Amino acid sequence: MIILQSAMEKSNLYKVDEFGVKNYNYGAIGMLSLTLFALLNAGLGYVTFLAETSVANSPVKNYADALWLMLMSSTTIGFGDVYPITFIGRAAVFVMFILGVGILAGAGAVFANKIFGFADTNIKNRELRKQNEQIMQQNMAIHAKLEQLEKKLEFLNK
């Protein structure tokens, strides 16, 4: 577990700050997500192209059609102008539905978190708690000194 956490921190995907909060590198996560998304579209598009172009009545006529099908599947738009008719083509579209939507949703959630600042609010609350703790310690020290001064004043007034 510790080795995995250390490897993740060294991967530059996130750093743990002094409050124990994971601060994500949104640029690295965005590039990783877009790269994975592009590779998935290209790869499954190629599989669909190979499976569908060998069938006579398939609406997938070329690689561009297969790539279009994957992009429409990954975003759940699915215009219906290009659709798979083979088992392999349908399986590729199914995989794209699951993984493509998952990648886009995950990336969207990370960026929404950054835009709306949920993590920033959490960090601010931790900073305020730490400051409050320091203020309470200062107040206790001042209170102790005041008690000592009160005792000295009582002693002098006797």
UniProtKB/TrEMBL annotation:
It comes from the Bacteria. Pfam families: Ion_trans_2. One of its GO terms (biological process) is monoatomic ion transmembrane transport. The keyword Nuclease does not apply. Keywords: Coiled coil, Ion channel, Ion transport, Membrane, Transmembrane, Transmembrane helix, Transport. Residues 118-152 form a coiled coil. The chain crosses the membrane at residues 26-51, 63-85, 91-116. Residues 46-115 form the Potassium channel domain. This is Potassium channel protein.
